[in-house]
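I'd like us to work through together how a protein chain folds, taking it slowly. We need material for that, and I hope you will provide a protein of your own picking. Go ahead whenever you are ready, and we will take it from there:
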Amino acid sequence: MKYYVHESSYVDFGAIIGDNTKIWHFCHIMSKAKIGENCNIGQNVFVADDVSVGNNCKIQNNVSLYTGVIIEDNVFIGPSVVFTNIRNPRSFINRKDEYMKTIIKVGSTIGANSTIVCGVSIGEYSFIGAGSVVTKTIPPYSFVYGNPAKIEGKISKDLMEKGTTGDS
């Protein structure tokens, strides 16, 4: 085992965890989950079956990644981000066969306390502002925020690395 798991966390047999990944306090990684190399999984994170997390990802505290979520490489997920996997959940109707895919593309950032409704894709290197509610697919290099989240500018990979947007 070439990854770290805090003693208070559970990694179910069969889960695939990449080298140099750190899984902190009170996490649960289910048996069919896949987490890449060099990831940092914060406190109280849940990763369901059939979730895929790429390499070099940072998942901050209190995030649940439900079945259908696919996170590509170099993605940042802020604290308490919410993902869904059913558009119209009801406690008395079993809809596990209706789980929808949600894809977070390479290099994207999702700010704290955002909600990502299932069935969308967040384009490459997009930046989702804190507290946003994403209800539609976001094109690559978009800077979005609000409820519902709207495109407020474009962002380039280079400028994003310096912490500034590329909108004019």
About this structure: The mean pLDDT is 94.
